[in-house]
Amino acid sequence: MPGPARGSGSAVSQEAVGEFARRLVRWQARAGRNDLPWQSTRDPYAIWVAEIMLQQTQVGTAIPYYRRFMARFPDIAALASAPEDEVMRLWSGLGYYSRARNLRRAARDIVERHAGRFPAALADIERLPGIGRSTAAAIAGFAFGARAAILDGNVKRVLARHFLVEGFPGEPAVERRLWALAESLVPKRGVEAYIQGLMDLGATLCTAKRPACGRCPVRATCGAYAANRVTDLPAPRPRRRVPARSAVMLVLRHGADVLIERRPATGVWGGLWSLPELVDAADVPAGGGPDAGLAAAVKRAVARRYGFDVRRVAPLATVRHAFTHFTLDIRPLLVDVVGVDRRAGEPGALWLPLEEAGAAALPAPVKRLLLRLGGGASGGDQPSLLEEAVQDL
Ligand code: SF4
Q1: How many A from CA of 47 to the centre of ligand 1?
Q2: What topology does CATH give the domain 244-388?
Q3: How many angstroms from the chain centroid is the CA of residue 233?
Q4: Quick check: CB of 5 below 6 Å from ligand 1?
Q5: Which of 247, 237, 236, 238 has its CA nearest to residue 323?
Q6: Could you give the CA distance from residue 189 to residue 197 in angstroms, rounded to a whole number?
Q7: What mean pLDDT comes out for the span 262-287?
Q8: Cβ distance 373 to 316 under 8 Å?
C-alpha cells in the first residue's frame, strides 16, 4: 500500500495514482451520491443543464429548479426556441443569471451548428457558451464515458491537500500543475464513478472548513493529513502588495491663515482644494527625512512658486491614507512665511483662517490634518499637530 502522497503533484507515482482512483471509486459506490435526478441518464442535455446549475449552487437547492427547468425545456430544441424571459423566469432565485442566458445561447448554437445534437467531442463541447474546460470534461465523462479530467474549485482543494500541491490554485503555474495532476489521475475504466467520487469527496468530506478526514476514503494516502497540514492547503489567495507613495505637503502659514490650492481637474483628488505639494522630484532630497536639505528645498520651492520668504520649516506627524491601489504617506511640513502680498492673491489659491480652510472641499486626510493642526472639533481628542512639530529644520 503506498504511503502518503508527497511533492508538488508532478512526482506522484503510478502506484499512488492508481490507488487514489481505486479508493475513490469504491467509496463512491458505497457512500457517494447516486440518486440525483441527473444521474439516471446518459442524455448530454440533461447532464449539461445539471452541471451548469451546480456550478454555483448546492445540490439540495438545485434539485427543484432542475426538475422545473427540465419539465418545461425537456430537450435542446425546447430550450433553443424558448423566449429568454421564460428561461430567466425559471432560473429566477438561483442567481448568476449569465448561466441561464448562456444555456439558451448554447442551445441555439447546437441547433445551428450541430443540427440540434449535443456534440460528443470535448473540443466542441468546450466551445459552447458558458462551458469551461472542467464542465466540458464532466459532461463528456458522464454522457459519453470520455476519459477527461475535471478540475473545479472543490477538486483543486482535494488534489492540493492529498498531493501536497503548494501555492494558490488561482496562480497560473499552480493551476497548470493541478491540471497535469488531474489528468494523470483519470482511470482507464470507470471514469463516471471516478468523476462523481471526486465531486462527492470535495462537496461532502474534503470541505473548505472542517473537513471530515476521519471518514475520508483516501486518508491513508493523503499528504496533508499525514503532515498535519489540512488547514494550510490549498494556500489562500496571496494578499496583494499595495505600493506605497509619499507626498510632501506644505502648510504655508501667514499669521493665522494657511494657503490652500485647487488641484487640477484630473488625477488624484481632481478639482478638490488641498495643500501645496513639493512636486518637483529635484526638490525632495533622497530619503526625504526631516533635515536641513529638505528645509533648503522648501525655501527654494516656495520662493520660486510664490515669491515668499520662509522663516521656519517644521515637520508634522505623517498622515497615512489608503487608496484602492496604493497607500499615500503625507509628510506635512509647517512653513511660516513672510513677504506675502495679499492684494495680489495667488492664482487658484486662497488664504484662509485655519478653521475655515478645514471646512473647504478637501480630501479627507488633508481635512483631518488641518483640523488636527487647529485642534478642531473633528480632530477629536487628538493633540494639535502644532504641539507635535518636533523640531525646526
Ligand atoms: S484526509 Fe482530509 S484533507 Fe485529505 S483528502 Fe481526505 S478529507 Fe481531504
Answers
A1: 27
A2: Nucleoside Triphosphate Pyrophosphohydrolase (3.90.79)
A3: 18
A4: no
A5: 247
A6: 14
A7: 77
A8: yes
Q: How confident is the model at residue 195 (pLDDT cuts 50, 70, 90)?
A: very high
List all residues 6 or more positions away from 63 whose beta carbon is below 8 Å from its beta carbon: 36, 37
**What are the strands, taking DSSP E only, across the chain?**
244-254, 257-262, 273-274, 309-315, 319-322, 327-338, 349-353
Averaged over 65-78, what is the pLDDT? 98
Q: Is 211 in the pocket of ligand 1 (CB under 6 A)?
A: yes
b/e for 323-356, b at 16 or more Cβ within 10 A?
A: eeeeebebbbbbbbbeebeeeeebeebbbbebee
How many CB atoms are closer than 10 A to CB 68? 12
Contact 229, 157 (CB under 8 A): no
Q: List the one residue out of 187, 190, 198, 73 whose CA is nearest residue 134.
A: 198
For 291, the 3-state DSSP assignment is coil
Provide the grid cell at 98.
449569465
Among 76-90, 94-108, 177-191, 269-283, whose mean pLDDT is lowest? Answer: 269-283
What dihedral do alpha carbons 349, 351, 355, 360 form, nearest 10°?
Answer: -20
Grid cell at residue 54: 451546480
Nearest of 174, 172, 153, 154 to residue 164 by alpha carbon: 174
Q: How far is CA 38 from CA 15, 74, 99, in A?
A: 33, 12, 18
Determine the 3-state secondary structure of 138 from DSSP.
helix
To test the pocket of ligand 1, the residue of 20, 165, 198, 205 to mutate (highest count of ligand atoms within 8 Å of its CB) is 205
Catalytic positions are 51
- DSSP code per residue over 147-191: ------HHHHHHHHHHTT--S-TTSHHHHHHHHHHHHHH--SS-H
The domain limits of the chain are 14-226, 244-388
The hierarchical CATH code for the domain 14-226 is: 1.10.340.30
Would you call 302 helix, strand, or coil by DSSP? Answer: helix
157 pLDDT tier (thresholds 50, 70, 90): very high
The residue among 200, 245, 206, 236 whose CA lies nearest residue 222 is: 206
